[in-house]
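thoughts on my protein:
***
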Amino acid sequence: MAFAPCPTGVTLAAAQQSAGSSTVVVTVTPSVLIKPAADADPNSFHLHYYVDKPIGTLKPGDEMPAGDTQIVHSGATTLNLNLTPGPHAVVVVLGQLAHQACGDAAGNVVMGTATFTVAAQTTPTATVAAPTPAATTAAAAPKTVNAGLAAEASSPLATVLLAVTAALVLGGAVLARRCG
């Protein structure tokens, strides 16, 4: 199977999508057909994201290895790499369908580098302030009408009303089972 030749004069730029994120955005200029390698389109190219891994001695035409967890093969130009918080360097290399690195007119690998820091995810926390002692001249808070069911000890009337309500509910349930 013949593959599309690597385009000459193409540049690739990689950047963090937004401050603190682990998403990398890649721009290929001029535009080339980028697809996942799984599509098996011989006229397409795909990207290799080297995550916190230098490309070493990679040259145009060299095959980029599969199975290395630090090299993500993708047809996406925007990719969330789900990186841990901290500093990271991502080198993105343009490759042919057979995972061969493309080169530019000068014989250099077509690549872009993004160096950035992923922010730690923060979990919202509630802050509870310690109560302050009341001033001796402060007026008492107004009481609300709550039938004695809150902020004070239960009244005998509230206890009786609760017991009667429970009896009615339970009695209704028993009656419903007998009749239904």
